[in-house]
Design goal:
The chain is mainly α and 98 residues long. Helix content is 91%, strand content 0%.
């Protein structure tokens, strides 16, 4: 049972990143992609809670959804920090060329 939930966490993280990447390709804005992943943290956290409630049938299964949301929030933070780092590099390289 535990292996299933680890696979579900990995699957939801990959899906959130793919959706964020698709929004990045559409808007060409890394901050927008980080925000989409942040929003998906709540959505997938709720989805994980519902799946855990259906499978485990225990009220404490809601904490599993909170665990998924936590990992997705950390993922969103990483994408946001990468966006800041890329922006700093772009500003530095564009100002040093001229």
């Amino acid at each position: 049972m535990e292996g299933f939930f680890f696979i579900l966490i990995g699957f939801l993280i990959v899906i959130a990143n793919v959706i964020g990447f698709l929004f990045f390709r559409k808007k060409k804005n890394l901050y927008h992609a980080a925000f989409i992943i942040l929003l998906l943290a709540g959505v997938f956290g709720g989805l994980g809670s519902v799946i855990a409630l259906i499978i485990i049938r225990d009220p404490f299964a809601l904490f599993y959804g909170l665990n998924i949301a936590y990992y997705l929030l950390i993922n969103s933070l990483i994408v946001f920090l990468v966006a800041i780092f890329v922006t700093i590099i772009k500003k530095f390289t564009s100002s040093s060329i001229m």
